[in-house]
Specification:
single chain, alpha/beta, Beta-carbonic Anhydrase, Chain A, 5-stranded mixed sheet, 5 strands, 34% helix, binds zinc ion
C-alpha cells in the first residue's frame, strides 16, 4: 500500500524569529577545528576569553589534521581554499589551528593505547606540521596552534 502524504500548505514558512546582524564584518580569525561537539563549548569560551568575537569556523573531521595528514589530497586543497575565501571575504589575517583529544579522525585515544602523553606528542607534531603547510602556502597568514583536552586548552608554539 502506498502512503499518501498531505500536500504542504505552504512550501516555506517562518518557524523561528531572530534578528541577526546585517552589517558585514572583518573576521578576527579563521578557526580550523574538528566538528566534535564535545569541544564546541570550550572553543567558544576560549575564543571569547581571548577577545575573539568574529571567527570564521571551518569545522571538519580532525580539524588541523586536514593540513598535517589529510585523508586525501583533495581535502587539504579544499580546506586551504576555504581559508583563502575567509581572507578574501572577511579580511581574515590569522588562522587558529586545533586538534583535540580522543578525536575519531585519529582513531580516538585508543589509537595511542590509551596513553594521553603519546597522543599529546602526536597531536603537537600534527599541529606544527599543519602550521608549516599553511605558512608555506599562505606566507602572509598568522598561525596559532592549540590542543584541546577534556580539561582545557594547550598552546603549541609553531616552530
Ligand atoms: Zn575530532
Amino acid at each position: 500500500m502506498k502512503s499518501k502524504r498531505a500536500a504542504p500548505v505552504s512550501a516555506v514558512k517562518k518557524v523561528f524569529h531572530f534578528d541577526s546582524q546585517t552589517d558585514g564584518y572583518r573576521a578576527d580569525v579563521c578557526v580550523v577545528s574538528c566538528f566534535d561537539a564535545r569541544f564546541e563549548l570550550v572553543t567558544r569560551k576560549f575564543l571569547k576569553k581571548r577577545g575573539i568575537w568574529w571567527a570564521d569556523p571551518l569545522k571538519i573531521a580532525g580539524g588541523a589534521k586536514a593540513f598535517a595528514s589529510p585523508a586525501e589530497e583533495s581535502e587539504r586543497s579544499f580546506v586551504l581554499g576555504q581559508v583563502r575565501t575567509s581572507m578574501r571575504l572577511h579580511g581574515t589575517n590569522r588562522v587558529i589551528l586545533m586538534v583535540h583529544s580522543d578525536c575519531g579522525a585519529y582513531g580516538g585515544l585508543q589509537a595511542f593505547g590509551g596513553d594521553e602523553e603519546r597522543e599529546a606528542a602526536n597531536h603537537e607534531t600534527q599541529l606544527r606540521s599543519a602550521a608549516e603547510f599553511l605558512k608555506d602556502n599562505i606566507p602572509a597568514i598568522e598561525v596559532e596552534c592549540y590542543y584541546l583536552k577534556f580539561t582545557g586548552v594547550w598552546a603549541v608554539e609553531a616552530a
